[in-house]
């Protein structure tokens, strides 16, 4: 199938827009690669420091002829998604030795959990942790002793931060090794119902805790299709995973076999061999377009609309919100995974998963097949499915038909003809909405505004019974410069209760929502943010607002809206407590949400 015209046109526009930035980037990568394998430039004393603790690998490292693989790990045992990485370094080292290579843990990066910090002060550091991760990975790789890198990371800000680092060190090959989702526990929709009952006082904390623990119950990513699992999809669509590896459960023989295969592949594609595949060749404009197509087709996390532009900039590629919106207009929504449906990612994988979806999108002309991936040339390799046959890992032809059309449908018979995200623009600014999980009858909301500057005040108003009519809740001064742009996902149960009571409600904010959000229409990432004097700072209680996901409009209908003086908030409390002091420089220097809300790129 020829490439879809819109996919072609958007890709060409990105290529033209990025030409100068991309050329500078690729020239820098070429100059770094032309210097040859890094260890040859280190003095003997430099090398001795690097190899001192390497035991049986010392001689191979000193000889400099074997590929040396650097491991950047987000391991910690507080995060279920990253706990499985505890076993990876030794498995990686053992595998490297078997193929005539060496491996060293180059450094660790922080990995905070938005589930732990949701609704808490620590959430104000969450988005900035992406830049810290990029910086920390850069420190590890700056020792300049590595011929390839393995990146161990899964969750919300971790993969985007690691991609920024991998692109910055794009002259060396890099492979992302996933850990996989936890096995299915209490269904996500049942957990959500208990949360709503707790919000209304129908159940107590003991019942809420039991439901939460039954849902989040073991090693691996959370099973809903939020940011963590969207990240895994992206790495596959963009060609940085081993094919079919995203959603294999942790601590299983197939999971370990795929990790081994990733190490073997990293050793094979270094500059010392005959199949040199640096990250810079993988992360071009076609790869990013494929990633956005995957985001739309799966109904993925809104957080990636922030992360992908920042990731792309690190590789010399410039993405805009218009690119997302235009790609969404031609990409069908093929999957229904919670919060867009009742299934979890394990059910999605069993129904055919990413391999089936990539095959369908390729056949429909909606993906670039001519991309460079770590598995070789062409994305078609990612339609294959890994299997352990007689204890040997092999890839076989993936499913050609969906195994459950309530979860996964073909491109020509999708759940809806367009993607899961919509750009919104108007006199309130520019933002986005995840429409894939919002019922069609709620795509247009026109109602009076209630304005808040703290999410806790929304909950208080709810508890006081103040929401008695259709309402558009405006939560402002939640942008990156104001307080680090925290997720406001803890508002979801509250607003969902109002919606279930028959009220028409929506959220408008310059903050973020979790990738698990979606039931309530939410215009998020509104830019320019209120702290910069953006339009949200001029909204007043009682203003008639319109949030229209059908036409892509967010507007204030008050006749004097444009002439008002913007409100100014006291942001002093945002500057201290739970580490916020350390991030003042980030708040002062962060870019606009529409450009990725980044500090380091």
TrEMBL record:
Pfam families: ILV_EDD_C (PF24877), ILVD_EDD_N (PF00920). Its EC number is 4.2.1.12. Keywords: 4Fe-4S, Carbohydrate metabolism, Gluconate utilization, Iron, Iron-sulfur, Lyase, Metal-binding. It catalyses: 6-phospho-D-gluconate = 2-dehydro-3-deoxy-6-phospho-D-gluconate + H2O. Residues 67-380 form the Dihydroxy-acid/6-phosphogluconate dehydratase N-terminal domain. Gene3D superfamilies: IlvD/EDD C-terminal domain-like. Residues 406-597 form the Dihydroxy-acid/6-phosphogluconate dehydratase C-terminal domain. Binds 1 [4Fe-4S] cluster. It comes from the Bacteria. One of its GO terms (molecular function) is phosphogluconate dehydratase activity. [4Fe-4S] cluster binds at residues 155, 222. Its cofactor is [4Fe-4S] cluster. Pathway: Carbohydrate metabolism; Entner-Doudoroff pathway. Belongs to the IlvD/Edd family. Catalyzes the dehydration of 6-phospho-D-gluconate to 2-dehydro-3-deoxy-6-phospho-D-gluconate. NCBIfam families: edd. PANTHER family: D-XYLONATE DEHYDRATASE (PTHR43661), PHOSPHOGLUCONATE DEHYDRATASE (PTHR43661:SF1). This is Phosphogluconate dehydratase.
